Amino acid sequence: MSFEQTAPLKLFCFTGRVRVLHFTWFAFFLSFVVWFNHAPLLASMREAMDLSDQQVKTLLILNVALTIPARIVVGILVDRFGPRITYSALLAIGGWLCFFFAFAQSFQTLALARFLLGFVGAGFVIGIRMIAEWFPARQVGFAQGVYAGWGNFGSAAAALILPILALLFGEDNGWRYAVGLTGAIALGYALVYFLGVRDMPEGSTYFKPNKHGGLEVTSRGDFFVYLLLNIPLYLALALITGKLTELGLLSAAAAKVIHLVLTGIFVYQSYGIYRVNAKIFGQPVPKIFRYKFKQVAILSLAYLATFGSELAVVSMLPLFFAETFKLSQVAAGMLAAPFALVVLFMRPLGGWVSDRFGRKRTLMGVMIGLCCGYLLMSQIDATWPLWLAVAAISACALFVHLGTGAVFAIVPLIQRRLTGQIAGLVGAYGNVGGVAFLTVLSIVSTQEFFLVIAGTAGLALTAVVLMDEPKSRMAEVLPDGTVQMIDLS
After folding, report:
1. What is the CATH number of the domain that holds 173?
2. 277-305: per-residue pLDDT in tens?
3. CA–CA separation, 241 vs 52, rounded Å?
4. Same domain as 294, residue 181
């Protein structure tokens, strides 16, 4: 192991592997700016293009629809082609799609562009593999937390900066130029990233999946668990389809066609998964090459409870404050902001604590805190002092973001050559959680909504108890056929 691999992580230098970390979190930051560049400009867009409330809601739904399958697809691409090419291509495509969205002249064009831009939301997966290649196991949790936490701030930065830019560009078309500028920056940085990083340190091997078309598993039982784990991804897409139908933007006949298409894709994907893993039904995988797929399932559930609840709560919290405490929209938004902003330091902290004190132990503690936090939030009503409500919600947010960091401190340690696909599946469950929790919110009270999330966190805690702590070493095969052991501690 080289000095570069054993030296302390100096976060504020710009050499070696830390340089790659800075290049990569900023790529993720830009992908989130692009993904959410419409949100702070919706008022201007609605006025300029005379959009109805239903059309605005449609744009919000379409923005997340493609991200769920995209995370699976991008996970496959990054394992096959490497993060340098994949991230550069994603940013470049996202840049051109920004132009497509910015200069749309009809709602139909806006909707199509927004749907396609959901693909950019899968950029998160790419950096998980890149950071896993560059950082040793004892630092990978903290590095992943910095990557995700600082990159996640892109959505907040878009909300802060883009309205100001739109105002500077002019009232009528300012939103178009602001969105177009984010596309130009993404295009430029795609080239910077391509020229500025490598997929792995010099002398290392980039391990690729043995087959393409599905995630490799190492036992028959894991095969069937994998098939079951894919079903909620399609159910989330079916829920989105149902929501669009409720809004009157899809006919019942079109919805049936979409459901049939989703069923067909699931059947085809299941066949692809069988084709990739057919050998396990004839002969067992040697013990040295096995990994436990239950780890992937448990981490998916944990990410659904953490990041999924974050997506849902961030969406509803300003309105909850406004209605519960009779506040203005501005005041409610300011009080809700800390729930998202603490990601800057809590997600890196979640990774660091995992590296330092144990990954399973950290994730169990986080799930206990998450369950208690949402139980406390379910008790908030108008009789509470406002400061106490803000304190309770902020405390819960700490565990939410600690949890997202703790989950992805474990993901890169399951199987190196499959890291992109595993990250894609776990990451997709975060989006599934957001869709599921917001669907629950549409049919129950906010108190019951928080109780459902608390129950989900309790279920995730039970699952994490059954998880095995990543330790010892994993085996990968070099191109010449020899076996390399990778340290996990």
Report:
1. 1.20.1250.20
2. 988 888 888 888 888 899 999 999 999 99
3. 19
4. no
